[in-house]
Amino acid sequence: MRIGLAGVGRIGSFHAKTLRQHPEVKSMVLADADPARARHVADSLGVDAVARTEDLFSTARIDALVIATATDAHASLIVEGARAGLPVFCEKPVAIDAAQTRGVLRRIESARAPVHIGFQRRFDSGYMAARDAVRAGSLGWVHTLRACTLDAAPPPAEYVPTSGGIFRDCSVHDFDILRWVTGREVVEVYAVGQNRGADFFRAAGDADATGTLLTLDDGAIALVSATRYNAAGHDVRLEVLGSKDSLAVGLDDRLPLRSVEAGVTFPSGKPYTLFLDRFHDAYVRELAAFVDVAAGRRESPCSVEDALASLLIAEACEVSRRERRPVRVSEVTV
């Protein structure tokens, strides 16, 4: 299998290294908005590079496409790849907002090629175990979920205005995993936010810390928190509380949380600082799954429709934060 990869920044170069090691990936070709960077990464891996991203479709003769470019290029590359009959993997988001995501869906609806959107938590062993427990009924009925995505440090100032905001960029991972673990849909949200850090968040109309109360379609309650300022470390967790049992994802010795109880030494490990460290194995499994998708052995494990469902929750949260009221997700679906 020959795979083309567009975008060799931090996550793209990681994906390139991962795919290079997959036994079914016989060759690769890399492209980037900066051709010199593409050539540098390609040379380090012993693979090909092309001068322009559009060359992936014209001269590279690829069997599948991986997209890790800047967000504003995702939609057009997904459409071009799917219409060319190529299986496509794309890092989230599909597009910057729900309207553009729906546009992608319309433009690829006649294409037969599968599209896999990158929500890597679906391939993390902890989240997979939580899903299995919920689906098996071992927790009883789930009444409460608590999720968080707490970044150790804020992103660069220039990233924020094009990120879509903290709900679309950050908490959307929690929204997706809540749907995936429980098999339920979010029907209503109430979100608040604060700006106590760098001024560039406020200038972009964004928040640097948020809290959201979500109601699921079976009545379960979920609480999701996010921040760009968790200096103790990168903290991503999920707690699922049921009538018979409860469990936690991310409660390991690298948890960046300090107990002040006497005699308690847990956790004692070195905290994660980056999402690539926290989810290294999940990213590897995710790309192995895409190779299976490209080979026709399985369907897409995270479709454009899945990505849209989580993005709609994020958009409802943004409306709620801005208007200071509960918002039904159905309000933003039309």
TrEMBL record:
Gfo/Idh/MocA-like oxidoreductase N-terminal domain boundaries: 1-119
Key words, A-Z: Oxidoreductase
Domain GFO/IDH/MocA-like oxidoreductase: 127-247
InterPro entries reported for this sequence: Gfo/Idh/MocA-like_OxRdtase_N, GFO_IDH_MocA-like_dom, NAD(P)-bd_dom_sf
Domain of life the protein comes from: Bacteria
Family classification: Belongs to the Gfo/Idh/MocA family.
Name of this chain's protein: Gfo/Idh/MocA family oxidoreductase
Organism: Pendulispora albinea
Taxonomic path: Bacteria, Pseudomonadati, Myxococcota, Myxococcia, Myxococcales
